[in-house]
Amino acid sequence: MSAGTGEQTQELVAPDVHAHVMAEAERIAAWGEAAERTARDEVNQPTINNWLEAMGLDNPRFTAGEAPPSMAQVWTMYGLGGRPSENDPLHAMMRALTDAGFTAVLGTNCEQTYDRYLRVGERVRVTTALDSVVGPKATGMGVGYFVTSRNTWYVDHADGEAERVATMLFRVLKFIPRARA
Q1: DSSP string spanning the chain?
Q2: pTM of the model
Q3: Which of 10, 41, 94, 123 has the most neighbouring CB atoms within 10 Å?
């Protein structure tokens, strides 16, 4: 986990708060890949067709048994009633920051990497790990920490081997809103 310089930290966040945030980040990062979740459905053509229509895409490759790579996350979403598990690193870090007074959140960016296309009939699973916590940082929104989680999607094969098919780094700013003038 990364931190700001000692001088900067003291100016932006009380030292005991910063120490607590970074200790929680280290503790949660030690979980490694956690919160494993298997897709409730196999990769399937009807969902691919609906996604293509929603995105305004028309690619014959994706009507012949392969899913667009950017759909990796679709298969393992929680759904309307879903809740993250207690051992979900991103949500655990968000709770720690909320408890420390950093109550606002802003998604900043996400980087996805695709190892291969998913195929109809495969069932994927995802894990989440805490990649980094950087801060405190003063931003236009307020003082906060940048939290990056790493999701990894796998397809398990009959021989017991797990094949990584995609990854995503997801970064958010968890902050104390700046007072308005």
Answers
A1: -----HHHHHHHS-HHHHHHHHHHHHHHHTT-SEEEEE-SS---HHHHHHHHHHHT---GGGGTTEE-GGGGGGGG---TT----TT-HHHHHHHHHHHTT--EEEEEEEEEEESS-EETT--EEEEEEEEEEEEEEE-SSEEEEEEEEEEEEEEE-TTS-EEEEEEEEEEEEEEEEPPP-
A2: 0.89
A3: 94
